[in-house]
Design goal:
With 449 residues, the protein is α/β, with parallel strands linked by helices. Helix 1 runs parallel beside helix 2 and helix 13 runs antiparallel to helix 14. The chain has a six-stranded mixed sheet, with helices on both faces. The protein has a five-stranded mixed sheet with strand order 8-7-9-10-11, sandwiched between helices. The protein folds into three domains: 150 residues, Alpha-D-Glucose-1,6-Bisphosphate, Chain A, domain 3, CATH 3.40.120.10; 198 residues, Alpha-D-Glucose-1,6-Bisphosphate, subunit A, domain 3 (Alpha-D-Glucose-1,6-Bisphosphate, Chain A, domain 3), CATH 3.40.120.10; 75 residues, 2-Layer Sandwich (TATA-Binding Protein), CATH 3.30.310. 38% of the residues lie in helices and 20% in strands. A hairpin with a 4-residue loop joins strand 10 and strand 11. The chain contains 14 helices and 18 strands.
């Protein structure tokens, strides 16, 4: 049986693959897990992004929590990192986020944070999953009645608590800075405009009118075209974009060039290093980081630790060795001394802080790193199982890697959430990369497609 939890929670098409019945069982299982001795009444925080299916899933999760005697606290529409922060601040048993991040509105997901504000480790997810499967077969778990039934309450004040926290993470005002903000019609649409205005920014906001259907629709950190146009149109100093649940941030400079996660890690990491606040002079990233990132950090006297793809693996490496900064090219950036997870709002303020303090144009920060061409091809497959043992696929990868030599690299990996094998090549010439990716993709398709 395939594992229910992927790299970032339980995902699927809303009401088809991910159903309210499953959400109920997950809520019930979580409350049962955090009430192992039968005496506690676990308090669980639940928040969501702006998808039309979010209210349905919050209701189902809350019903599940209450059925096991837990207390469900509904924060409403709120960024994912806010749930992590507030769960820890209020000493709750767990936090649950209903979101499919950067995916289209028709998808949704359910992910958990522990009482410490960190994502649950695999072993706890597995225990919750085992309870879910037992509920499906024979629900003989604790079912309170009378005054022992759990309660549900809404707390809209929690969003303001999170806004105050984000404001506390910077000591730099943004007066005179012209910023365009793209909220992706998602969870940041209330919080981030208020934060930037309180800091004095001259602000233009786009994609801040969610209707349940337009989250991430040609906007946000995965679709930067409209942000780039607006930055140029209004003559902004910088543009900031979040994804649907606001755990990511990407920026564009005044010329419309993109500051992806690699560049933001260089910008913030070297600023921390200058202040002696980068332990081990080390930044943690994933195998997807551009070669140019590695060269820029090395040239500045820093070092890089590399993990497999996924912000949870970046965070594990950071916690294991006391590193303060890590992240992904996609814009998941973790400031370990500030937050327990990737926080797009905190990331934006840290980038803006460096820009304001240096007093330079954003394009000068973009130039701190030179990106090598990088090409990614997604191959739809019937199954991802066994691809690493496929001799023909491995030979294709080895042959093409030999062509690139020390001037580039090839990375082939399965998607954590979709039936895809991702083929990535990086090197000095775009045309060569296209040919290499296509040849490997053809082999993968023939073997697994």
């Amino acid at each position: 049986m395939a594992r229910m939890f992927g790299t970032d929670g339980v995902r699927g098409e809303a009401n088809l693959e991910l159903t309210p019945e499953l959400a109920y069982r997950l809520g019930r299982a979580a409350a049962l897990y955090f009430n192992k001795d039968g005496k506690a009444r676990p308090e669980i925080l639940i928040g969501r992004d702006t998808r039309i299916s979010g209210a349905m899933f919050i209701s189902a999760l809350a019903a599940g929590v209450c059925s096991a005697g837990g207390h469900a606290v509904i924060a409403g529409i709120i960024p994912t990192p806010a749930v992590a922060y507030l769960t820890k601040k209020h000493k709750m048993a767990a936090g649950i986020v209903v979101s499919a991040s950067h995916n289209p509105f028709g998808d949704n997901g359910i992910k958990f944070f522990g009482g410490d504000g960190y994502k649950l480790p695999d072993e706890i997810e597995d225990e919750i999953e085992a309870i879910v499967h037992r509920i499906e077969k024979q629900d003989d778990f604790y079912r309170p009645s009378g005054p022992s039934v759990g309660s549900l309450k809404y707390n809209k004040a929690l969003l303001q608590e999170y806004i105050d926290f984000v404001l506390s993470t910077t000591d730099t005002r943004l007066d005179g800075m012209k910023i365009v903000l793209d909220c992706a019609n998602g969870a940041a649409y209330e919080a981030m405009p208020e934060i930037l205005r309180q800091l004095g920014a001259d602000l233009t906001v786009i994609h801040d009118e969610p209707n349940g259907l337009n989250i991430n629709d040609a906007c946000g950190s995965t679709h930067l075209e409209s942000l780039i146009r607006k930055v140029k149109e209004v003559g902004a100093d910088i543009g900031v974009a979040h994804d649907g649940d606001a755990d990511r941030c990407l920026c564009v400079d005044e010329k419309g060039n993109i500051l992806d996660g690699d560049r933001m890690l260089v910008i913030c990491g070297l600023a921390l290093k200058e202040k002696g606040a980068l332990p081990g002079d080390t930044i943690v990233t994933t195998v997807m980081a551009n070669i140019g990132f590695h060269k820029a950090v090395k040239a500045a006297g820093g070092r890089v630790e590399v993990t497999k793809v996924g912000d949870r693996y970046v965070l594990e490496e950071m916690r294991a060795h006391g590193y303060a900064l890590g992240g992904e090219q996609s814009g998941h950036i973790i400031f370990g001394d500030i937050a327990t997870t990737g926080d797009g709002l905190v990331t934006a303020l840290q980038v803006l802080r460096v820009l304001k303090q240096k007093g330079c144009a954003a394009s000068e920060m973009t130039a701190m790193m030179t990106s090598y061409p990088q090409l990614l091809v997604n191959v739809t497959v019937k199954t991802k199982d066994g691809w690493e043992e496929n001799a023909r696929i491995q030979k294709s990868i080895d042959d093409e890697s030999a062509l690139l030599g020390d001037n580039g690299r090839i990375l082939v990996r399965p998607s954590g959430t979709e039936p895809l094998i991702r083929v990535m090549a990086e090197g000095p010439e775009q045309g060569q990369l296209e040919e290499i990716c296509q040849r490997i993709a053809d082999v993968v398709r023939e073997e697994l497609g």
